[in-house]
Write a structure and sequence with these properties.
- The chain is an alpha+beta fold.
- It has a single domain (8-174), classed as START domain (Alpha-D-Glucose-1,6-Bisphosphate, Chain A, domain 4), CATH 3.30.530.
- The protein contains four helices and seven strands; from the N terminus they run βααββββββαα.
- It has a seven-stranded antiparallel sheet.
- Strand 3 (57-65) and strand 4 (68-80) form a beta hairpin.
- The chain is globular.
- It comes from Chitinophaga jiangningensis.
C-alpha cells in the first residue's frame, strides 16, 4: 500500500539547552498541552492523545497547511527517550474532498555537550493510491502537486522546529 513517491522530505535542527539525560521526547509528545502545541505554529489547531486499535499511543494533530485542513493520526512506532518515530495515515480536506497521505514524523536528539543537545525534526510525506487517483481525476500531475506543496510543508517544518525544541527544553528542565 505504501507508495515510494515522496511529496516532501524535510529535516531541520535546533539547539536544546538541556542535558540529554533529562530529555524524553515520547513523554513530551504524549503529554503536550494543546495550547503549547498551538504556540509552536500558527498552522496548529488542536492536539490530543489516544490509543490505536492495537493499543499503541497515538498523537492526534490538527493543522491547516496551505489552506488545507489536516488531521494526523500519529501512531508510535519507535519510542526511546532520545528518538521518537510516528506514522500517520493523515486526512487532508481539499476543495474536492477528503484524501489521505502517509506521514512519517521523526524527532530525535543528539548530545552536543553536557548541557546542550541538537534536536532534529524530520517529516516525510507520501501519497496513497487514493490520493494519486484524486489528483489524476482532477488532471493534476503528481510532480506539479509536489512542486506546489513542498514550499508550504518545508516552511512549516522549518518554523516549528525551533519552537518544538524550546518546548522540549522546558519539559526537560521541569522534570
Amino acid at each position: 500500500m505504501e507508495n515510494e513517491q515522496i511529496i516532501v522530505d524535510s529535516s531541520f535542527s535546533a539547539v536544546i539547552n538541556a542535558p540529554i539525560e533529562k530529555i524524553n521526547i515520547p513523554e513530551w509528545c504524549f503529554s503536550l498541552p494543546e495550547n503549547e502545541y498551538q504556540a509552536c505554529s500558527p498552522a496548529h489547531v488542536a492536539a490530543g492523545v489516544t490509543t490505536s486499535p492495537e493499543g499503541k499511543r497515538m498523537s492526534i494533530n490538527v493543522e491547516v497547511l496551505g489552506g488545507s485542513p489536516m488531521v494526523q493520526h500519529y501512531i508510535e512506532t519507535l519510542s526511546e527517550p532520545a528518538h521518537l518515530i510516528l506514522e500517520s495515515v493523515s486526512d487532508v480536506f481539499t476543495p474536492t474532498g477528503r484524501v489521505n497521505i502517509l506521514v512519517h514524523w521523526e524527532l530525535s536528539v543528539e548530545k552536543v555537550d553536557d548541557h546542550t543537545c541538537k534536536f532534529t525534526n524530520r517529516v516525510i510525506s507520501r501519497p496513497t493510491e487514493g490520493f494519486l487517483k484524486a489528483l489524476e481525476k482532477q488532471g493534476i500531475p503528481f510532480d506539479l502537486f509536489k512542486t506546489q506543496r513542498q514550499p508550504v510543508s518545508i516552511y512549516h517544518n522549518q518554523s516549528e522546529t525551533p519552537l518544538f525544541a524550546k518546548s522540549i527544553e522546558r519539559h526537560a528542565l521541569r522534570s
